[in-house]
Structures are given as C-alpha cells and as structure tokens.
Amino acid sequence: MPSTADATPALKMSGLRMIYNPGIFRRKKVALEGLDLEVPAGSTYGFLGQNGAGKTTTIKILVALQYATSGRAWIRGTDIRDNAARSQVGFMPENPYFYEYLTAAETLDFYAQLSGVPKNARRKRTDELLELFGLTHAKDVPTREFSKGMRQRVGLAQAILHDPPVVILDEPMSGLDPLGRRDVRNVILSLRDKGTTVFFSSHVLGDVADICDRVCVLHQGQKISEGPITSLLSGRVLEVDLSATGIPAAGVPGVPEIARRAWHDGVLYHVLVDNEELAQKAKALIEGAGGTLRRFVPHVESLEEYFVRVTGAAGAKRVEGEGAIAAPSSTKLPAQTAESEKGGAA
Amino acid sequence: MELPAAMGDSETARMHERAEALELRVRQLAYIEYGFYLWLGLFALGAVLLLAWVFWPRKRALTSKGFVDLADGIPAGLHVERHTVGIIGGVLVLMLFAITQQLRVDAHRGFIDDQTARMERELREATAHARQEVLDEAHPTAAQLADAGFQARIKKAEAAARQVIVDSHYLYQPSAPFLRKIFLNNDSVAADYVWLTSLQYVSSPFRRGQKADLMVKFYDTILELDPHWVGALETSGRLLSALESSRTRAEAFFNRAITHNPDDYRLPFQAGLHYVVPPLDPKQLPEYSEKAAFFLTMAMKRKSTPPEMEHGLKDLIGRLSTEAGQYQAASDTLWGVANDANAQEQLRINASREWLFADSLLRASKWQDAVKEFKQRFGRFPQSLGETRQYVLEGSNSPWPAWFGPSQKGRDPIDAYGYAITYNPPTGKVDSRGAQCARAIQTHYVIESLIELFHNEPENLRNPADMQELSAWGRAYYQRIGGAPAPITQALGLEIDCTASPLGGSWDYNPLTGELILPPDCEVSKLYANKAAALEGRRPPYFK
Amino acid sequence: MSFIYIALNTFREAVRDKFLYLLMGFALLLILVARAVGWVSAGLDNKVTTDLGLFAIWLFSALVSILIGTGMIYKEIDKRTLYTILSKPIARWEFVLGKYIGLLLTSTVSLVGLSLAFLIYLKALGSPIDWAILQAIVLTFFEIVMVTALAILFSSASTPILSAIFTFMLFAVGQLTQWLVDFSTVVKTGSALTTRLLDGVYLLLPNLNNFNIRQQAVHATSLGKTFAIPPDQMLAAILYSLSYTAAVLLLAVLVFRRRNF
Known about the structure:
The complex is a heterotrimer.
Chain A: E1 11-20, E2 29-39, E3 44-49, H1 55-62, E4 70-75, E5 78-79, E6 89-92, H2 104-115, H3 119-132, H4 148-159, E7 166-170, H5 178-194, E8 197-201, H6 205-211, E9 214-219, E10 222-228, H7 229-234, E11 237-245, H8 255-258, E12 261-264, E13 269-273, H9 276-288, E14 292-300, H10 303-318, H11 334-345
Parallel strand pairs in A: 3-8, 3-9, 6-7, 7-8
Antiparallel strand pairs in A: 1-2, 1-4, 4-5, 9-10, 11-13, 11-14, 12-13
Helix pairs in contact in A: 2-3
Chain B: H1 9-55, H2 84-109, H3 111-138, H4 142-146, H5 148-170, H6 176-182, H7 187-202, H8 211-225, H9 230-243, H10 248-260, H11 266-276, H12 285-301, H13 310-324, H14 327-339, H15 345-378, H16 385-395, E1 421-424, E2 429-432, H17 433-456, H18 467-481, H19 486-492, E3 508-510, E4 515-517, H20 524-527, H21 531-535
Antiparallel strand pairs in B: 1-2, 3-4
Chain C: H1 3-16, H2 18-39, H3 45-79, H4 81-86, H5 92-125, H6 131-157, H7 160-175, H8 178-186, H9 192-204, H10 214-219, H11 231-257
C-alpha cells in the first residue's frame, strides 16, 4: 500500500484528447480537450462535471476501454498502454452488469481469476467480500435476479478483489437509495483509511464534499477547476446571517442599504448581507444602535453552489443557444428561502 | 462465321442455328466476365475498406503494445450499428446482383441448357420407347404396319408419352445438379429425399399408364446423386421392371447402375431376375433367357456374392442357357451342379434332369451342325448320320468335339437320355428323341389341363372332338380373358396350337377319354433312367 | 493465461442458457424422426437413418456456433459486461481467444452429445458402427472449428443479426466453393486474369466441403472400405481447418483491438 509520502501520483494525465466520429456526414464531437490532471497517491478524489462533460470518457480511457485520440496517461508511473498498468487498478463502471447465469459467488470468483488473485486465496477473499457487502445470502443466486443495489455492491466488490492501490469508480452511487449510498460511502472511507487512492465521479455532491480531499470539475471536455475542496471553497462567503436582540421594530438605520434583507421578527432583528466586510459594517451599525449580536453566521459556499457557479460561468462563455434552465429570482437555496419566509411571516 | 459452299437447305439452316447459338454463348461469356469483374470490384472495395479500417494510421497515442502498433489515426467511421438500414439495403442489392449474375453463369455453364437438353433427350427416348411398346404388343406383319390405322395408333402412343414427359417437368422432379446445390452438397440426403418423393408416385393412381416414364426420371436422379446406394437402385430397377411391359428401359437402367457399382452382386442379380420372367411372346424367350443368363453369370462372378446362393444360381443359369440355345454352357453348368457334393440333394437331382435335357440338345445340335456343313459342302443333305460322321472324320476341317467321331463305325448316336438321335434326310433335321419325349410329356400335361378346362365349360360338358377344335376354343377363350398364362404360351405358342406334337406329327388323342396317348418310351422313369449316372459323374455314352 | 478463464466462463454461461438445449432438442428430434422416415423408405431404413443422423449432427452443431456465437460479443458490449472484464489486466486478444474457445467448447459439447445419442441409436437399431462414420464426425468437428472462428470474427465486428446473416452465408457458400472451380475451368476462353481472380476468390472462401465425407462414410461398408477417406487426406483437411481458423482469429483480434467501447 502506498504511503502518503510516495511522490508518484496515483493517476497522471497529460494532454488527453478524445474526438468522436459519429458518422460520415455528421460533425466530429470533441469529448475531451487537452486534459491535464494529477491525482496524488492516497487521496480521495472527486471527479465532477455535468452529464456529457467527459467524465466517463476519461475514466474509460484510463482503463483502456477507449483509446484517446492524443495525449498520455500513467497509473502509478506505468503508462496505460501497458496491460500491467491495469493490474494496479480496480474499476467499477456505471450501472455494472454481469453474466446473467452466474451466481454472485461465481461472478466474484471469475473476476478474481482475471484480477490475478492467487488460487488458494480466491475462495477466502470472495467469501470475505460477500460478507463485507452483505451478499452472503445471495451467494448462490444468479445475478439475473439481483436488484440494482445488489449489483452495485457486486460491482464494488469486484473492483477491490485484488486489493489494488488505485480504485476508479464511475458514479458509484447512481440510482441507490440512501442506505445504499451510505454503504458505498463507508466502503470508500474504509479504502481511504487503508491508504488506497480512490478516484470517482459522482453527482451526489453532498457526499463528495464529505469524503473527498480534492475535486476536479470538468466542463465540456475541459478542466475548469481543480484542487483541494477546502481551498476551492474557503474563499467564498455567499452571505452572512446576523441576528441581534435589543433592536426596535423599526430596525437600524443604514442597515437596509447595505443589507440584502433586514427584518424584525418581534424578538430578533435579522440581517442578511452579501459579504464579510458588509457584515462587519452591519455589526458595527447594530451595536452602534444598542443591539447585541446573537448570531453571526457566514454561509460558506457549498460544493454544489460552487459547482453550479463554476459550470454556469464556463457554460455562458462557450455555448450559445443551449437552453439552461433559468435561475429562479432568489439566488438562495430553497431551505434558506423557507426559513426567511417563515421569519418574515412571523 | 463462314459457311462451307454447296450445302443443302436443311444443312444450312442447321449451321445457321449452331452459329447463332455459339455467338449467343460468346456474348453471354462476355457478359459474365463483365458482371464478374463488377462483382469482384465491389467485393475488393469492401475488403479494402475493412482493411483500411483496421490498419489505417490513426492519431492516437494510447494504442496497446504489439506488432500492429502502426501509428495513430481516426477510426474510419464505419460504425456498423449506426448504418444498419443502409448496410442491409446494400447487402440486398449485392445479393440481387449476385443472383442475376448466377443466372448468367448457369446459362453459360449450360445449367439451363442442360435442363433443355435433358428434356429433349427424354422426349426422344419416350417417343422411341412408346413406339417400340406398341410394336412389341401387336407384333404386326408388314401389311399391318403399313395400315394407316396402325400408324395412327403408334402416333397416339408417342404423343401420350411425350405429354407425360412435358407434364413431368411441371411436377416437382428436380435434377441432380439443382438438388446438390439446394442441399448444400449433402448428396446422400438429397438422394434420400428424391427416393421418398418417388415412393409416393409408385402406388398412386396418377399416371397409371405411363408410370415408368415418370419413375425413371426419379431413379436417374438418385443414381446421379448417390451412385453407390445399391439398395435403392435395386428396388428402383425392380419397380421399373414391374411397371413396364417392355423390358429394355429397365435393363438400360440396370446397366447404368451396374456401371457405377462394379463390385456389387445385387444389381446384376436383379437384372437377371428381370429377364427370368417369361415374355408374353414365346418367340422372345431365347433372347430373354440369354440376357438373364448373362446377368446372372455376372452376379455369380462378383466377389460379394454370398456362397449359399451359388448352387441355386448355377442351376438357374444352366436352365436359362438351355432356353437360350446355349447348350454347351448349359451342359457344363448343369453338370457342375449335379456333381457338386456341396449342393443340396434335391437341387442336384433337378440339375441332373436338366442336364440330361441340355446335353441331349447339345449332342443333337452338334449333329445338326455337321449336317449343315455337309449340305454346304455337297449341296445336298446326307443320307444318314453315318454318312455325316464319315464326312466329319475324313472331310471336315472344322473343330468337332472329341466324342463326335470315334472310329467305331456302325454305331448309332444317342442322346444323354440314352434315346436315339433322330435324323430326317429330306429336311435334314436332327433331333434328340429324349428331348422330344421330355417336351412331349410336359406339353401333354398342359393340353390335358386345357381339355379339362374345355370339358368344364357349361356350353361344352364334353371332350373336344379333336385338337383343332381345342385350339380354336382355346384361342377364343384366352382372348376373352385377356391373354394366356406363360406356361400355356410357352408350351403351345401364342396361337394355342394343340395340333403339333413335339414328337413330330400330331398327337394321338382319344376323344372318348379326353386323353393324349404317349408312345411307350415317353415315360418318366424310363426317360430319366440316366440321371443316376449324371449324379455320380459318369457321362452317359454318346453312341450305342 | 486469462483466456482460459474467459473460455470456461463463456462455456458455463452458454450451457446455462436454455437456447443450447432448444437446439439440441431439435437435433435429437430429427434423429428420432429419421427412424420414422426410415420406416417409409421401403426397406432402406438404415441408410436413411444414418444419413439424416449425420446431417442433423452437422447442421445443428454449426447452428449452435452461428446462433450463439454471433450474438456473443455484441451482447457483451450492449450489456456492458465487457467493461468489467477488459478493465482487468487482460489483453484484448486473450478476450477474443477465450470467447472462441468457450464457444467451441459449447458446440463441441453439442456435437459430442448428439453423436453419442446417434451412435447409441444406431446400435439399438442394429446397424453397424464403422470407423467411417466416426471419421465423418471427426471431420465435422473440424468444420465446426472453422465456422466458430467465422462466427467470432463477425460477432466482434457487428450486430447479431448481420453477423448471423454473414456467417450463415459464408457457411452455405463454403459448401459450394467447388462451383467456383468448375466455373473457372469453363471460363478458360476468357482472360487468364479472370481465371486467376476466380481461383483467388476460391482460395479465400472457406472450403467447407472438404469436411463433408458423410456420403462416403455411409457407403463405406458396402464398398468394402474401412475408412471413408485415406488418412493423408484427412490430415490435410485437419491442417487446413487449423490454419484457416488461425488466420480468421487473427483478423478477429485485429478488428476487436481497434474498437472503442
């Protein structure tokens, strides 16, 4: 298992391009444009992007299901053109499917054979994994009869059969119920604890924010953002939520001009400002008016908000006429809106 | 095409026809080549595109290692899944093209010509065959033949036969080359199929009169597809034999089958049996018997003949040879069976009796040959057999058998039965008394049964007055019922002639008792006294 | 050598699919019906039964290869079972070879099963079983080796229906390549180029009639021979089958390697 001190990146991509030729009479489609990416060893890496951004293409190129038009990539220093590179990788595709007539145990045994797990260890390992993923009861059931969640679990199991140092997952949580998602999360976390590099794409940004160290956002084949989550999001404060007591119903003069919203709910005086600077000003005004600040909450941009912002900006630059759904009048998230409405009504 | 000078009109016309046909063929050839090139071009184009797709250099860095790592490139957009409709359409067009080309190929190769030629040949054969059948049945004299009505009858038969051939081409009677392709070269299964199809027609009432014309086509197809399927060919021959009154067509079929199966005994055996059954016209008996003997001998000589059949076959061959007039062969063969310790007792006894008959006829025929040669030499018949013998011993250069002329003069020649060899100087006819007696005994049984038949007729209830009356009555009787059975015609001829006795002259008939009286030496035990000698291998003496 | 695992797995998957048994059931039905057909053959039962039996074995084993094989790789792509396999450290040629061997195993099982049933049936009918019939069955096996390779080739290139059509067409044409040779001898009046090209096409197309000794096998005993064809001809046929198959598989691997999934 690689230590975090290992300098070789788990995955490295340099100038990856992928151009599809859909037909003789149609235009070529550019799926990836010059992607440069480095995934440090031992990290948990989130690979984000809208549908059709090129995430699956990248992943497929990494596991040699597709051949990139140009560019190179390495898995732990081994060029992916070498078949041996794939022995260091465990891959789970989106919506995995298995041979219909094989049972769960036979399926895992088959993949163990292909992954190069030595013969005497195979049985033990497959039993272990079946246990871990709670599939022991379905050991002798043909995969035809599996539910979606069970298939995802088998998919995940076959990816980690041979204990690879790098695990690549394509939308591991797609279509799962909350319990399923939680299971997948736990597996990824346990992998992280072991020091395995986990590289996965997902749309469930809340989980990504929780688990991942780093993310990369792909938009229409280009990398538009990359880095540790903390550094991507730390700078941005969407708004600051202040609440104070001891303010009369009329409010504090000067505040409504600098605040987005300011209202009194009978007990507390709420103020929403755009940034920290204005918040400090508001604070000063409130305290100047004799109020006591009870709450000072900066809403840091969530990953989702970051994502929407970043892809929206990139999208506005590149694509004309592609109808994005218009942003609602309030830029606040529904939860916040409801809260403020409640506050307003009261 | 240059035509030679001075040709008659019909010749010219024929030459023109052939020239045209040849030109047509040349043009067809050119067409075929042209079509073939186009076909091949498309094929090559497809292959080139496929190879290009595989080997075309692509702009790609991430190829896998290996010897086909030829640079990079862009896949050549031939994603089959996306152009399914187009590709299916293209394939259909190509198939259509290929089919039209194949028709030309077939035309050139004579496949279609072949069919036409076959049909023409079949029509010719059927016409000739129908004509022959009518002639065989009617046995017309020259006058009858010239008769317009008779000619019309022949024409009608020919037309009917031709109609059958034409109709049969509309029946499902595919030819061998066609079936071979349909069954993807599974000739054996194709032959099975034709066999099963043919069985339906054997017993069906459809085409009762011309069944054989129909069936021979099936059987020839089977022969072509699976020439070694002796079981089917044997049965086919037998069926043909049963379906036709004329035997030549079945014989021809047997011959074809035998050519392909030189080692099998069953086919010549069946061919022989085909001729064993006596003909309607007893005058044809020698010819049929000769053919039967020929085929059965062939069967006997084959390696695959089961040994237990040997003796029975030999006996049969011997008897057939006698009927065919091949007395030497008959005598030798029957002598062999009679002496063979391995043969069955009863068979040997029968063979010995037959041998006596055959050998007697052989001896008589030798004397007859001598008399003929004498006549040729001296222009008159010899006065006696003694004179003949003298001539043989002294004046003749031809090879005669060893027993023919021993130096004992004054001894009379006898036949195998021990009876005299009779000679009639005015006619120069030599005969064997013993053989005559044997025939007389046989014939008298036949006539006596006829007399009984006559007697039992409700309008008669008496014995016939004489042999003429019996003959006349017999003729009328059998004409009414559609023909006399073979034993009767063999013994008495087609005209049921009861008057002539094999002993020469007429029968000694007693109208009161309704019996024929045979001379005292025509008595069975006396006649066959020598058979014991034959059984023990002692040849009866040639002279008394 | 991961292709062994792929082969065994392919075989296992095919054997558990009901389709195989459907085809075999039809074949067995045909063999049984052959007896009935024999009954109406006017005393020529055994020949007809043997004929139809050998025919059924040949046809249905080929159909197993063609029908199962042509959908094989496409199904993997469509259902994406391919993704989890090719992403393992396995070379693409191993996948194609594994699929081929698995499919060959499946049709061999069908062939052997049908042959055993047929031979037992023949024994029960009292017909002798000669070496010639066994020889015919062995050559049928080598024909199946070639047909299976063709099925894999088309399967790796195209959709099931088209693959099945192409493969079956090649199978049918392969029986009749003799026709091309006959044609080229007849067309001698044309240019030498045509004759050469025809010969080239003849060589390129699979000569499956090479392996059709069924007619000789059926008549071997009655002609007094032990074997339907002499051993050197048989060896030549086997070598042809193996070399042609190798070439076709090579082409299949080349085609498969170029594909993007």
